[in-house]
Hints:
Layout: H1 2-46, H2 50-56, H3 58-100, H4 105-149, H5 151-156, H6 160-186, H7 188-212, H8 218-239, H9 245-259, E1 281-288, E2 298-305, E3 310-314, H10 318-321, E4 331-336, E5 339-340, H11 346-351, E6 353-356, E7 365-366, H12 367-371, H13 380-389, H14 393-396, E8 406-407, H15 416-429, E9 434-438, H16 446-459, E10 464-469, H17 472-475, E11 480-485, E12 488-493, H18 495-501, H19 503-512
Parallel strand pairs: 3-10, 3-11, 6-9, 9-10
Antiparallel strand pairs: 1-2, 1-4, 4-5, 7-8, 11-12
Helix pairs in contact: 1-3, 3-4, 3-8, 3-9, 4-6, 4-7, 4-8, 4-9, 7-8, 13-15, 18-19
Amino acid sequence: LWAAGLKMVAMALLMAVTSVCIGFLASRVGAGVARDMRGKLYSNVMGFSNAEMDKFSTASLITRTTNDVQQVQMVTVIMLRMILYAPILGVGGIIKVVGTGAGMGWVIVMAVAVIIAFVMLLMVIAMPKFKLMQKLVDNVNLVSREILTGLSVIRAFGREKKEEERFDEANKKLTKTMLFTNRTMTFMMPSMMFIMNGLSVLIVWVAAHRIDAGVMQVGSMTAFITYSMLIVMSFLMLTMMSVMLPRAMVAADRIDEVINTHSSIEDSENPETIESAKGVVEFNHVNFMYPGAKANALEDITFKAEPGKTTAIIGKSTLVNLIPRLYDVTGGSITIDGHDIRNISMHDLRSELGYVPQKGMLFSGTIASNLRFGNPDASDEDVVKAAQIAQATEFIDNKAEKYDSPIAQGGTNVSGGQKQRLSIARAIAKHPRVFIFDDSFSALDLKTDAILRKELAANVSDATVIIVAQRISTILHADQILVMDDGKIVGKGTHEELMKTCETYQQIASSQLSAKELGKEA
């Protein structure tokens, strides 16, 4: 008795240690799988061009990186715990059943077949809904993101009720789908219990006839029932995965779609290097069409932007997005210092550019860390000088911590004008050969705009400056102005030349400036 008791205690301890080890191993592997997936997703998305970003949408990429990865991680952990444990029970149960010599193996085979058929039926019903569920999660994410980022506009127009209804609609669709899948899966456990109890009744019924015939002992029947339950339980544990597996499979497919999507804009196999960068940008009969569009957004664009000169563009921001290869041209070519930008590595190309987007974007950190974003090695003098040129010292010096003042995520703790000036200073601190200002002066008042452009002209006189603007006053003194209309250049020249030759420019100028400012007689 003591020997049997000690064996049972030892076995219990062994099972406890094994369970802990399996749990630790499964958790570690699951966390590692999730880490690697997030790493691959992040590194791949970082290489996406604007075309791929438009295809997936920001909301969907966030869902795939968080919710979808979490689904795969959870299933990985549970699979490892069950897959390592269930076969031991199943194989052990089969060995013991054979040892009983009861001759009722067909009962177990039938029970297992019924379980598998039932689980497959549930998966066929639920799988389409699981696919829909992840898309609906994307939609809830999208609506939430739009509402939260546009909260001030929503309040200003009194659209709170409408936006609540829009969110409620997206939320209800997701809830309805989740309820359907959960209700479908709730049939599993009671059905499995019914099958197990039905199996016990069947075994007892068959065994009773065999006992009555004198070919089987009562003890063999009891042992057969116990071991049969072990076998069925092992299959039950494996099939329970079907509750989570469909959704995890959908999540894995969505993750795989992102990982296997390669950027449409890639480096050349044998990239060229610019030996002595000057910053001469030339467009040669450039055409561009957005992915999926039927007509060109830009058509036959030809011009040259040179160092020490300012080239201004009225009417089309798309044009400057082609220079850093946020999109690739669909016809013609763009060259820098005589090299086609498609033949230059993107790192080398973008290191020559100082890009200031239309909407100023800052990152969480400090003012100094944001100004050093494009040039981590910039000295304190470079940072201060860049801020002075961008007219940012006015508000920086008023802060207690100066350049160490914190910047919140997205720059929400500074005004629109301050954000834009810091964005301009960030580009200046990089010391690029080509400056690209994508309507970057629109958030500035006219006085600050004029002073900033004057300082810019005096301090970056050896660089090529390309400005997209809607305000005539911003580009009045540009060396070359391109007037865009319907994706084509309809006018090219200085302000004075265009006022004589380009009707479109005349209309824009007359709508913004007075006759005196235009040099006309009152």
